[in-house]
Design a protein that fits this description.
Keywords: Cell membrane, Disulfide bond, G-protein coupled receptor, Glycoprotein, Membrane, Receptor, Transducer, Transmembrane, Transmembrane helix. It is a multi-pass membrane protein. It comes from Danio rerio. It is found in: Cell membrane. With 320 residues, this protein is mostly helical. It has one domain: Up-down Bundle (Rhopdopsin 7-helix transmembrane proteins), CATH 1.20.1070. The chain contains 9 helices and no strands. It starts with 13 loop residues before the first helix and ends in a 17-residue tail after the last helix.
Length: 320
């Protein structure tokens, strides 16, 4: 049964209240626009249709979901300290939140696997890891997350239970919570850390070997050098993406675990951790803009409207 619940009166001034909403709207808008630009860039320019970029496209799609659905609803809840959007939108927030989180974590895991294979087994990677394989992997990730999250929420009656007015929160039983922790946090994050440790070790060995060798100025050796340098650079840049992702992810799960096993009131700390977790969706396109020359070139072509020119999808946007 629902206890008597009334939304608390605002204890902040109107100016602070307006600033909070403007800041929340700015973050959500930046998230949507940034990830839309990533999606347009990778989708439009055929030269960017590579396995690694398909995974970036998948990550941008999940980040776009966060910007469109999760951020507006979540920030409103945090600012108001009360749920005002009704039970239907609460169910939407629950499901999209779970879906975007699991897709993001598993996509970053796939990025780690992709970079590990590209550097550790380059011949196997070039022969076996095609666009079709990566597209199937990315689609399977979305479908698995869809089935998994629907099952978790349905088992815990989040699609059938009655919603108290003014309240929107997730209650998951201990078994489901443990399974969710393993599938969405422990296993993928362990895989990411292990694989990227190997990736950085391999990249360092490759860099040392290239500096030590006396390479003849032949066309073939030059091509191999460029290809190897490109793979190492891609690994290092994606490493930045992975590091920032883990940095935003860990506080949320750590505070959630601490809250589960302590009586200390840490709800405000968790709210801050939740904000950091979802702001990662805003940070990702900024990382692309700062460190990825191809994204910088795509932005220039998009903002100058050259993407509407004939055969613009065939333009050279790669920088080695």
């Amino acid at each position: 049964m629902c206890e008597d619940y009334s939304c608390p009166e605002r204890s902040v001034s109107l100016s602070v209240y307006v600033i909070l909403y403007v800041a929340a709207a700015a973050v959500a808008l930046l998230t949507v626009c940034g990830n839309l630009l990533v999606i347009i860039s990778v989708s439009h320019f055929k030269q960017l249709h590579t396995p690694a970029n398909i995974l970036i496209l998948s990550l941008a799609a999940s980040d776009l979901l966060v910007g469109v659905f999760v951020m507006p609803l979540l920030f409103t809840l945090l600012i108001e300290s009360c749920w005002i959007a009704g039970p239907v939108m609460c169910a939407v927030l629950k499901f999209v939140n779970f879906q975007a989180t699991s897709v993001s974590v598993h996509t970053v895991s796939l990025i780690a696997v992709d970079r590990f294979l590209a550097l550790s087994f380059p011949f196997f990677y070039s022969e076996k890891i095609s666009l079709t394989v990566i597209c199937i992997a990315a689609l399977s990730n979305w479908l698995f997350s869809l089935f998994y999250n629907f099952t978790v929420l349905y088992i815990n009656r989040h699609f059938t239970g009655f919603m108290c007015p003014g309240v929107c929160f997730f209650v998951i039983d201990e078994v489901s919570s443990l399974i969710d922790l393993l599938i969405v946090f422990v296993m993928p994050c362990t895989l990411i850390i292990i694989l990227y440790t190997h990736v950085f070790v391999i990249a360092k060995k490759h860099a040392t070997a290239i500096r030590a060798l006396q390479v003849h100025n032949s066309t073939e050796s030059s091509k191999n050098k460029i290809s190897d340098k490109s793979e190492r650079k891609a690994a290092m840049l994606l490493g930045i993406l992975v590091f920032v992702f883990l940095l935003c992810l860990l506080p949320y799960y750590i505070t959630s675990l601490v809250i589960s096993y302590t009586t200390v009131d840490l709800l405000h700390v968790r709210d801050v951790a939740v904000i950091f977790f979802f702001v990662n969706s805003t940070i990702n396109p900024i990382i692309y803009a700062l460190f990825y020359p191809w994204f910088q070139k795509c932005l220039k072509l998009i903002f100058t409207l050259k993407v509407f020119e004939r055969d613009s999808s065939l333009m050279n946007v790669q920088c080695y």
